[in-house]
Amino acid sequence: MSVLVDTTIWSLALRRRPADLNAGEHLLVTEWTELVKTGRARIIGVVRQELLSGIKQHALFEALREALSAFPDERVETEDHEAAARAGNDCRSKGIAVSLVDMLLCAVAHRHGMSIFTTDPDFARYARVLHLKLHSAPGKTFQ
Length: 143
Description:
The protein is α/β, with parallel strands linked by helices. The chain is built from seven helices and four strands, in the order E-H-H-E-H-H-H-H-E-H-E.
């Protein structure tokens, strides 16, 4: 099964130095590496944009842009935006604050039958309301 990878995981794998990762983060990057090797890691454009944002050095921006070019964006359709709005409304009605990007990830993952790989604890709250599958690294439970 394909896995929609959130910004938090891509950032650990591609923006952080391995020497700066703790043991749990190393497990997450190892799992991300396995997803990439098996062709199961997926990305959407807004995650790509988040990853590339805030990089002040042109050379670092270009290096990351080049690394990400190996991963085509999953198509985001009008129905995904509508489903994201519906999901956000459902979560808010249960007292759960949402972000638009997170809801779009949830909608795209749901439409494609993908799980989401993230370190963001908000997704565990969303999963209580939405039909959402979360991916975790072996030996590492979702927070």
